[in-house]
Every structure is written in C-alpha cells, then in structure tokens.
Amino acid sequence: MNFFSPPPTITAKVHATLPESLICREPSEWIGGFAGGYNDVFLEGPTIGTSESVFVTDIPHGRILEVDKQGKFTECLKYDGEPNGMAVRKDGKFVVADYKQGMLLFDPETRTMSPLVTRWNLERFKGPNDVIVDSKENVYFTDQGQTSMTDPTGRVYRLCPNGRLDTLLTNGISPNGLVLSPDEKYLYVAMTRSNEVWRLPLHANGTTSKAGVFFRSFGTAGPDGLAVDEEGNLFC
C-alpha cells in the first residue's frame, strides 16, 4: 500500500541516435570480460556541459562523445581508458570516473584528458564507477570494481580541492551511483548487488558516522544512478 500520490507521467522522446559511422566494433578488454552482449558501444555518464551539449562516455572503447542541441553526435576523444560516470566542475572541466585509469579530468575546450587522482596510498583503485561534485568543489566518487555480496569491499572517496583524499566507506556492496541531499548534509550511495541505497551523514569536520540503509528492494538488478530534486526526493 502506498499513501503517496502517483508521480506524473513524463513521456520520453528520442533526442539523438548514434550514427553507424561512430559505432565502434574494435576488440576491447572490457567487452571480453563482460557477461552481457554489448559488442559495439556502451554509453554511460550523460552530463550537460557549460555549452549545454550533452556529453556521454563509451566505456569499452574509451571515448567521450558530445551530443549537441540538434542531436548530432561528435567524437571528442578516444584514449586508453574505460570511462563511466562524469561530473562538471565550475571551471567547465569534467571529472571522469574511469574503471581502468582512475579519476581523470577532461577538458571539453582542448578535448584532452589528464590524471586527477589514480591511486590511494600507492594502491590502484578497484574500478571507479560514478562521481559528483558539491558546491565547494569536493569530488565524491565510488570505487566499485567487481565487489558484491561475496566481496563487500567497495569504497567511497572524497577528493578535496586541496588534494586530500578521504575514504568515507570501505565495506560497500558494489557502490554505484551517488548523490547529495540538497543541503549537502547527507550522501546517498546505490549498492547495486545488495539492492540497497545507503545514507551517510556528512559532518562539519569532514567525517561520517552512523551510515544506514535508506532503501532496500529485491530482485536481480539493484539501483544504479541516483538523483534528488529540490525537495529532497530521491530517484533511483
């Protein structure tokens, strides 16, 4: 039973379709190790840039693609990586969670990629998945790798503007999408393999405590990307 009014129905329409000329059928390590049937392209991380174009990643082929207002695709960059989620900083550059290379920085003006942070205490990341940037330019990102119920070691990090890297969580069960509450006092993290969304209070001194399960479901596929509206409603 649900006592809330049903949400309004929003009918989606196709804005853009990747043209045949940009479909990549080259061999990829990511495709070779993936259980699904994704052979040509796997688009992720849709993010609106300062130009109002939508930028997306192509994980298996290490590409950043731009979609303009008219729905035209352009390949901005192809490199040795596996980019997933992205977030825009105030300077217009994109923070990219790259499963293979760590956390990178993409400049849409020069169409170049550079490392942002690739290790934690000399240790390589498991495989970053998603990223957000708060109002103070702190970068929060999930390090998902292949963690699951049998390997609950996924991590959530915060990269501060001064370069300090904080570990907020080390026992995540496939941490995936993440989002902040409107007042930025709480961090929500999707735990895909446990079918949950966790809620982490963020204290003024930068620490977190008393993290708990905010939402739990059941089935073969758990929550992935997260979003909140101005009223603080969580969507997953």
UniProtKB/TrEMBL annotation:
Residues 44-236 form the SMP-30/Gluconolactonase/LRE-like region domain. SUPFAM superfamilies: Calcium-dependent phosphotriesterase. It comes from the Eukaryota. InterPro entries: 6-blade_b-propeller_TolB-like, SGL, SMP-30/CGR1_Lactonase. This is SMP-30/Gluconolactonase/LRE-like region domain-containing protein.
